[in-house]
Design goal:
- This protein has 104 residues and is α+β, with helices and mostly antiparallel strands.
- The protein has one domain (3-100): SCP2 sterol-binding domain (Nonspecific Lipid-transfer Protein, Chain A, 2-Layer Sandwich).
- 32% of the residues lie in helices and 30% in strands.
- Helix 1 (3-12) packs parallel to helix 2 (63-71).
- InterPro entries: SCP2_sterol-bd_dom, SCP2_sterol-bd_dom_sf.
């Protein structure tokens, strides 16, 4: 699965109910691919290619780590502790990804 397909799957598995009242930008810097960002705004989710001017949180990882997390094979917290995933900005928002997207 390509990185673009992984993000399309994320967008399809979006939990709109969990995003009511939220206004966030999750940026993903994929070290061996492109940068993408997801704009979460009051129950909606839009995927964009490229960097955002002011993301709420930026997650930096390889495409392999991204695929593992989205497929459910890799635990995001374990990836973070192992140094496979880095976060910049509001790190607590990264923990919300599991609520906002049905992974695995």
């Amino acid at each position: 699965m390509s990185v673009a397909q992984v993000f399309e799957k994320l967008e399809q598995n979006f939990n709109a109910d969990a995003a009511q009242g939220l206004d966030l930008v999750f940026q993903f810097d994929i070290e061996d691919d492109k940068t993408y960002h997801l704009v979460i705004n009051d129950g909606t989710c839009k995927l964009h290619e490229g960097a955002h001017d002011d993301p709420s949180v930026t997650l930096i990882m390889s495409s392999e780590t991204l695929q593992g997390i989205v497929s459910g094979e890799t635990d995001g917290m374990q990836a973070f502790m192992a140094g496979q995933l880095r976060a910049e900005g509001d790190m607590m928002l990264a923990t919300k990804l599991g609520e906002l997207f049905n992974m695995g």
